[in-house]
Amino acid sequence: MKKAGIWGAALVAVFLLLGLWVRDSVPWIDTQISDAIGTTYVNDRTVQVLTDILGPIVPIVAAVALAGLVVLMWIQDRNWEAGVVLRCLVVLLACRGLSLFKDVFKRLRPRLYPEFAYPSGHTVSVACVGFTAVLLCAWFARRALPWVIALAAALTAGAAACRVMLGVHWLTDVIGAVIGVTGVGLIFALVLRLVPVRRA
């Protein structure tokens, strides 16, 4: 239990420090990756479709689905389960709120774009749904947990890669997004007593 809090706080600190570091500078790793990719994928239709799917719509759909599930469980008098799902919904919303830090750090994008860069909103979106899915799985479907973790990691990595390939984010934008979501997720999961997992 204490470890989750320590890890969460440490990851949030890394997220904030990374944001302060990159807001006025472009680290070597960012320029190397950006130069290597160049404009190869800027107009790539497949990458564009993937980034449209793996973006801000994902947490909206997930939040609506979880809210509906909570109501359904309450109607069925499954209050304990509804409480767990409701707390997971709060974790999802808290993690999604990490995108608000764009206006705090005001980091410019690799190319002209109307919004700021750090952290990547698309990566935050997919990562927060993945984190919430892992939490739900830990409570209700433990046997599927390794598969859900692998799927969440793969989709988050895919969303992050698409944003870098399209030239709308630096590598550190997507890395910071994953670090931040994990940190905030751990802290909220601990505060809401979702970790450690306990059976009814």
UniProtKB/TrEMBL annotation:
User: Per the record's keyword annotation, is Repeat included, yes or no?
Assistant: no
Looking at the record's lineage, which domain of life comes first? Bacteria
Which segments cross the bilayer?
49-72, 84-101, 121-141, 148-168, 174-195
Enumerate the InterPro entries for this protein. Answer: PAP2/HPO, PAP2/HPO_sf
Q: Which Pfam families match?
A: PAP2
Question: Where in this chain does the record put each Phosphatidic acid phosphatase type 2/haloperoxidase domain?
Answer: 86-189
**Which residue spans adopt a coiled-coil conformation according to this UniProt entry?**
none
**Keywords, ordered alphabetically:** Membrane, Transmembrane, Transmembrane helix
| Classification via Gene3D superfamilies | Phosphatidic acid phosphatase type 2/haloperoxidase
Family matches, as SMART domains: acidPPc
Q: What is this protein called?
A: Undecaprenyl-diphosphatase
Q: What organism does the record attribute this protein to? A: Actinocrispum wychmicini
According to the entry, what is the taxonomic lineage of the organism? Bacteria, Bacillati, Actinomycetota, Actinomycetes, Pseudonocardiales
